[in-house]
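seq/struct pair 1
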Amino acid sequence: MENADRRSGSKLSRTKARDLLAPRRLSQSNFEEICSPYHISGSDRARLLAEINTILKDIGQWMKNNTHKPHRQLRRDMTSAAGHLKKARNLLDVKAKYSLSALGFVAGDIAPMVSAQWLSSKFPADNLSPTALGLGPFVEDDASLQQRNRFIEHRPVQAIAEILKALEAGVAQSLKMQKVLPGSKGGPKSLRARRILIQLLAVKWERLGKKASTSPNSDFVSFVDNIMDAIGWPSDMANDGEAVAAEARKAVKEWRNLTK
């Protein structure tokens, strides 16, 4: 029995590229069942389902296209974009004293794009920063929009600079991930797509305030295993997650090294 378990436990590590079909999208009912043991709120489940299905769509599209070209041009373009974002932010800082009155008119365009909670987290000590009513969470309603408009009208340079900074950080993180994305070095790499899926699930998991532990009995490994089974990829449902944990350990270790 022990040998049989060991053979079963190595099933995922023996998966070949041909074993991975384009991943199925997750239905709401299926995802609700997957999430039920992990105490994920209803709003987080809805957001997480949409995000994971977007990831699955992108991975499926890549597998369909099966490109053989490296992504060097994309990396060059993204590096250039990051540079332009930084330059724009620096120009705003330099020219802030000349831009205040003119930039105040952008509030009507920018305020609906950002949340009150985001502005509050970026400018916690500013007396114009949006505030939640009572002890409850922020509600992005008309009253909140008025607060955001007021803040950006009076702090346009600071608000725009923070938006550019967030975009710059996002592009920088994307460039790191580009190094391990499917096709980054040319050739079909469907098994790389599996690792990237686990890494992106780890990102989503930790944004929920949970730790992406890769021990065999961890909630994260169980979550990944259930996702793989639901999308039609080889999983390890009947073997306590040993093989999934082994693959998750490699994927999460690589992801943490990239984000250091």
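seq/struct pair 2
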Amino acid sequence: MSENRSHDGYLNKYAYGLASPSVILPCGSTTTNDHFQRWSQKELCYYTHYGQQAFFNSFIFTPNRMANGVFLNAQYEGFSEHPTLNDWIAWSNELFLQNNNVHALEQLASNENNIEVWITLPYPSLYYKQTPNPLQQTYIHHPHKRAPLLKQWIKEFTQRFYQQFGNKNTLKLKGFVWPKEKLMSEEDIVLVKEVSEYIHSFHLHHMWLTQYGSANVIDWREHGFDVVVLHPNYYGNTPFDIDWITNNTIFSKHYQCGIQIPYGKGLLYDDHHIYQYLNLGLPDKCNYMNNAFIVFHFDGIHLHEVAKENPQLYTHMYTFVKGSYSKQPF
């Protein structure tokens, strides 16, 4: 059995020597919130520490809407003008903004809590509009430019990261995340394979955050991914019932994937969904708490809010991450 596979089939919690669970950190604004999110040390300390104790130590920075109104989040493709090369550069600059984002994590890292960083890639859309203006920045979407320019972005980001943090043993770049949940087109499949190979040339990993039942998930190794983590599509206030979590875990065990755990507020979510995820992770249930590679997705809520408004839940999340959680009624 592969050391990256848990005894019951999941992608191992410690696959490739990586830290898990990881947390998605969305940056920028969204379709429903104009607040431009830049992660400060004050906000991130609720993720990295539970009081004086180490908490999460793996983080995924992912872009939403940039300051100029352009969406870099591939899930919102078509909600704004198509990104330009300048928008890609702006995403890189945001990540390295002094006292925010990666720098803020670096300030919180320590010998007792080494921190791992993942970066969601910008997406070169399949959209391409021929224009008589040779300076038009949409050329990043040209079919023959997608791979070279994305690899250029990866190279420049990686070099910049190592220049700034290369001597920091407490902060490590672990890899990049493919920006689309679905892998549908042949053009994207070809691109993913080429990008995966390029990422591996830096001795880094390629992650895919996708959904249970998505196309091409069962063939994820053929596309060069190292880490694939599935979203069960269960929120509590939708037609999908709790069986979607269980079915997702069965699928994940069979195809050696990890598990996403969403916690949010809004119309999709009820008050109990997070405890359903936590309880099902226990050894006598679906057994992913200590066995599977996990990614937490906080939707519309930050952990500093949870800590202040629902400290009991904050404590239960901490014990889940540390593997000592016990079943809670709700």
